[in-house]
Amino acid sequence: MRDVADRRRRRSIRESALVHRRRAAWPPNHVDPDEVPIIVERSAPYVFHPAHDEDIREVLRRLPCGSLDGLGEVRLCLYLGDSEWGPRVRDPFTGRLRRELVPGVFGPSVLGTYTFSTAGIRIHAWLCGPHVAVPIAIFLKVESLRTLVHEVAHHFDRTFRRGRPRWDVNERERDEAWAERIEDEHALGIVIPYVVEQYRSECEELAGWVAEHGGAAIDPFELVDAASRPFLDLVRSVLVGRPRNATRALFARSLHRIGANVYARSILRELLSRRPDDARALAVSACIAQCEAKDFGTAEQLSRRALAADPACMEAWDALVRGYAIRRMWREAAGACESAIACAPVGEDPPRYILDTLEQARGRLDEAIAPASRAVEPA
């Protein structure tokens, strides 16, 4: 079987190399953005293409001259296979394994592809009900247009920049990194300005939605484009019906994780002004104090206030344990880990970090005891 697979692989390489040589014999045709075929496949009402054909056309018009030369088509289509990586569930529409971005919105692990042999770009659809919330619809539009410029970068790379077949894994990874860099540049210079210009009222509604549910006036595209996790965490929390105070505390934690502490502190100040003993808000405040200012004393004080209000608040235990571990206070860290495990809600495992830190702390304490034991052994 291996010999057959090797022969097939060698044949595929030869055929690909032949295609490259033939295409290199003449320059690619100039392609006007208004003449690129855009094919939209809509096979069912649950198939959602966030970026429609005019969105695609306008972004193509704004790309640098020559970027599209030789491009065959752009096809908006449904990915018919299963997602191949990450957490997956079966979508209720096709029964395929897909990733659930937020409750009720399903998509493939790969948002788009470029095929060199046909010079075609495929942008994969999302699956959801007929009414998609405005915030996630705008986010998905940005994601689809980012995917478009990413695949156009691959087209330009394969057609002009590196016009030869590439089979080495490291080389393909470098090509992907280059396309991601171009995607980021065009997202800031082309995609975001277009969406803000063309969908101003929807963007204003999105900003109001973030302020209402998240608790801070944040430019939504600082979240949607630069780091989508806080925005998606907020959407998920709202859609599952989590209480508003808990949603805002979790949103502040997610913002803190990407370094957006100005926004996080604004949310926490407002929340703690109304609920001074909110355990989650105190825990996030403790984490910011020790991560940003290295103020371990304040962080420990805030963590213990949180635990006094809610002994089962794992976020507060995490901040307390982390502060001890950073300072290599292994005895205190081990004690805090053991207390956290004892206080974990029934039926829930304590955070993995606490379990790992307990093992590390015990190991460091054993290492400290061993030399002392040997020192008192009789000669």
What's the gist of this structure?
The chain is of the alpha/beta class and 379 residues long.
Write out key terms for the chains shown.
3-stranded antiparallel beta sheet, 2 domains, elongated, 8% strand, 14 helices, alpha/beta, Serine Threonine Protein Phosphatase 5, Tetratricopeptide repeat, 379 residues, 61% helix
Determine the structural class based on helices, strands and strand pairing. Answer: alpha/beta
Largest sheet: 4 strands, mixed
Cα-atom radius of gyration: 26 Å
Distance between the termini: 67 Å
State the strand order across the main sheet.
1-3-8-7
Q: Report the sheet-strand fraction.
A: 5-15%
Number of domains: 2
Tally of alpha and pi helices: 14
Oligomer: single chain
For the secondary structure, the number of strands is 9
| Poorly predicted ranges | none
The portion of residues assigned to helices is: 55-70%
* Overall pLDDT metric: 86
Shape: elongated
List SSEs in N-to-C order: HEEHEEEEEEEHHHHHHHHHHHH
